[in-house]
Amino acid sequence: MTRPDPVRHDNAKVMNRFELTKRLVGRLKHGEAVIGGIGNTNFDLWASGQREQNFYMLGSMGLAIPIALGVAIAQPRRHVVALEGDGSLLMQLGCLTTVGMLGTRNLTIVVMDNHIYQITGAQPTATAAGTDIVAIAQAAGIARSAWAADEADFERLVDQALAQSGSEGGGPTLIAVRIDDKPAVATTERDPVKIRQTFMRGIAAQSG
Fold first, then answer.
1. Which domain holds residue 35?
2. Closest by alpha carbon to 161, among 171, 169, 153?
3. Which of 42, 44, 87, 123 fits 18 for a cystine, CB–CB 3.0-4.6 Å?
4. Are 37 and 83 in contact (CB under 8 A)?
5. Gap between the Cα atoms of 79 and 88, Å rounded
6. What is the distance between the alpha carbons of residues 175 and 110, in angstroms, rounded to a whole number?
7. pLDDT tens string 110-126
8. Contact between 161 and 108 (Cβ < 8 Å)
9. Does residue 166 fall inside a structural domain?
10. In sequence order, what DSSP letters do the residues of 123-161 get, joined into one string?
């Protein structure tokens, strides 16, 4: 019996960011915090439902994972998800080594890879030339890193990450997905003070 080829960056199904984001949000049942990277990543998070536990990045490219890591360390009983694009992650690759070194169990990173800097003119990123985000993450010490083969596999990987959040011997998870170049379906309300206050209230870091 022939085994299927392992999922790699060049044979994963190309999916849609908004559809994947909806599937992710629909699986969050315990007040998980979600940090959406700049641009289309947080636009589609916004369109998937405005949870108080969502934080929408505005103009800080590459910082979704560092912020998510900080929240995960500050609140170890809360699972934290970072949603990031390939371009933003490539700008801040060093954050993966910090995540791998710290081994924070309640952190999941979802990287949406469409091979382009979509909102600045669709210039190709390094992943278009073969850079493999999962291979980099694994080399940085994030052992639980994988490409999602398709939508069902994405849901399986998300469920697995959420279930392993507090398990002994677990660690952070990185899920990479291939996505198309369709634009986001909505635009985040650009009110940084409101975004901050709502998020802090949502994770009980601030009353009122």
1. 14-202
2. 171
3. 44
4. yes
5. 22
6. 5
7. 999 999 888 788 899 99
8. yes
9. yes
10. EE-GGGGT--HHHHHHHTT--EEEE--SHHHHHHHHHHH
Domain contains 208: no
CA 144-150-151 angle, 5° bins: 95
Taking the CB of residue 207, how many other CB atoms lie within 10 A of it? 6
Which tokens hold the place of 3? Answer: 């085994």
Is 155 within a domain? yes
Q: What is the CATH number of the domain that holds 156?
A: 3.40.50.970
Does residue 1 fall inside a structural domain?
no
Structure tokens at 197: 């206050």
pTM of the model: 0.94
pLDDT band at residue 157 under the 50/70/90 scheme: very high
DSSP 87-110: HHHHHTTHHHHHHHHHT-TTEEEE
